[in-house]
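> example.struct
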């Protein structure tokens, strides 16, 4: 007698049940599998369940039988381990450039990789802070469009939104139109940024993707990055991100800093443990590195007050003096 369609899909249905309902702490018995198959319109006997599980194991599925905490089967070969799912879920929740709707969609997809028991445990600690999420639903499509433009070396046109205060003291949005050459996408400071060149200027600009809309690829080839940056043959995204502070643009400059040992962790977090320490004396260490000279760098140094002394260049020292004087004058 030929098998019914349900019988033909029995093994697939058993695998789906194990993915959905089983984990190491919640094994599924053959009886439960029979009940779940019946809910799908597949009537089987217990022996058929055993044969189906054996067939799945022969095919390569990592299905184990246990007697603790109760007798039953569970699936071991899931795409992600439970801690990995938690890690990815936390990252999605924390990313401010992902909208509330997209956050819920992504968390739901991650949830589909968990068993019911694992999902219940994770939901107890799930919280989505709507207050810090962006509202631009285009952002994921824009990442795809910009990735294609970068790969194809094509310019893009886009609308960029900045906030302004109106005459009646309301916060309003002002739209600006740009035609730019895109070079790289960087995730930093909880935002996605596009590093690009505005054709009107000879430098790099940073565009927050949550504020960009209506992005279109145009037929014009990009302006080569060697004309507006220090890079010649390849735009080194990792190097550029490491040199940029708070995604402020600026010219690449060698700086020398003298720092107290007590802030070594913060220095290494920012510059990596590859820095070469030149001097070590009286609780201070000195090192040099190349970074983009910018207001972002000044902000980073000032947060450590008297724990960092700028040895060079003089231009950076002058920037710090000017910022300090500006702050002092505000309180006179």
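> example.seq
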């Amino acid at each position: 007698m030929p098998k019914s369609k349900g019988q033909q899909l029995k093994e697939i249905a058993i695998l789906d049940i194990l993915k959905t309902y089983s984990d190491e702490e919640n094994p599924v018995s053959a009886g439960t599998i029979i009940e779940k198959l019946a809910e799908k319109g597949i009537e089987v006997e217990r022996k058929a369940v055993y044969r189906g599980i054996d067939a799945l194991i022969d095919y390569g599925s990592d299905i184990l039988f246990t007697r603790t905490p109760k007798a039953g089967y569970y699936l071991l070969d899931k795409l992600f381990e439970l801690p990995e799912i938690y890690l990815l879920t936390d990252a999605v929740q924390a990313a401010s450039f992902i909208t509330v709707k997209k956050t819920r969609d992504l968390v739901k997809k991650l949830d589909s990789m968990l068993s019911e028991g694992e999902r219940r445990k994770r939901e107890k600690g799930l919280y989505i802070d709507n207050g810090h999420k962006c509202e631009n639903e285009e952002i994921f499509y824009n990442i795809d469009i910009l990735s294609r433009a970068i790969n194809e070396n094509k310019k893009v046109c886009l609308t960029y939104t900045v906030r302004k205060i109106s005459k009646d003291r309301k916060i309003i949005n002002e739209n600006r139109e740009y035609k730019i050459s895109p070079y790289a996408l960087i995730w930093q400071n909880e935002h996605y940024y596009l590093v690009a060149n505005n054709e009107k200027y000879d430098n790099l600009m940073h565009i927050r993707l949550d504020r960009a809309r209506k992005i279109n690829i145009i037929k014009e080839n990009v302006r080569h990055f060697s004309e507006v940056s220090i890079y010649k043959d390849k735009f080194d995204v990792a190097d550029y991100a490491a040199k940029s502070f708070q995604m402020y643009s600026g010219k690449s400059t060698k700086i020398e800093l003298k720092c107290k040992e007590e802030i070594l962790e913060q220095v290494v977090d920012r510059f990596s443990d590859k820095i070469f320490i030149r001097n070590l004396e009286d609780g201070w260490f000195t090192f040099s590195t190349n970074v983009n000279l910018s207001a972002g760098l000044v902000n980073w140094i000032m947060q450590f007050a008297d724990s960092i002394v700028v040895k060079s260049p003089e231009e950076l020292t002058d920037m710090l003096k000017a910022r300090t004087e500006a702050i002092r004058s505000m309180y006179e």
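> remarks
The chain has a mean pLDDT of 87.
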